[in-house]
């Protein structure tokens, strides 16, 4: 099973992805948490040269870097029937962020066409103003104008791909209980097939 958490920074997606992994492991299931950009060579390069230093600004080049990092990420993940993989960001992030910077969405989807379709996608939805208030450090994408566009793209993707939109202003516990309920229900339906 592949479960993805998406949303702007400050939406709580990392917190909820880690809580879900812990709760599933506590239930005796095998859950694995990983994030994008990764801790690998390409992911570290993205964090340093794209997000922090802003040395690479061409949105198409950035989209390709994320796709390359994603490819190495997928090659490092164990996909088997008894493992639940939980990703903190996936190709929807590329669509939302690079799309907000003007890269055609069909181009982003094409360069990420190797990526598998997740079983569940949770979109942690929050007003960008509130999301920014939750952050203690910022990268070059974290400004209100960009995040308004990113959120709009995310909400369109949610409709198109059947993402589960979560109100990220609720309490951490309330959100995690809702998420675990959806995951348990989805696993039950999948087992019944």
UniProtKB/TrEMBL annotation:
EC number in record: 2.7.4.9
InterPro entries: P-loop_NTPase (IPR027417), Thymidylate_kin-like_dom (IPR039430), Thymidylate_kinase (IPR018094)
One protein family per Pfam: Thymidylate_kin
GO molecular function, one term: dTMP kinase activity
One GO CC annotation: cytoplasm
Reactions mediated catalytically: dTMP + ATP = dTDP + ADP
Coiled coil: none
All copies of domain Thymidylate kinase-like, residue ranges: 5-179
Superkingdom of source: Archaea
CDD domains in the record: TMPK
Keywords: ATP-binding, Kinase, Nucleotide biosynthesis, Nucleotide-binding, Transferase
Protein name: Probable thymidylate kinase
Organism (species): Candidatus Marsarchaeota G2 archaeon BE_D
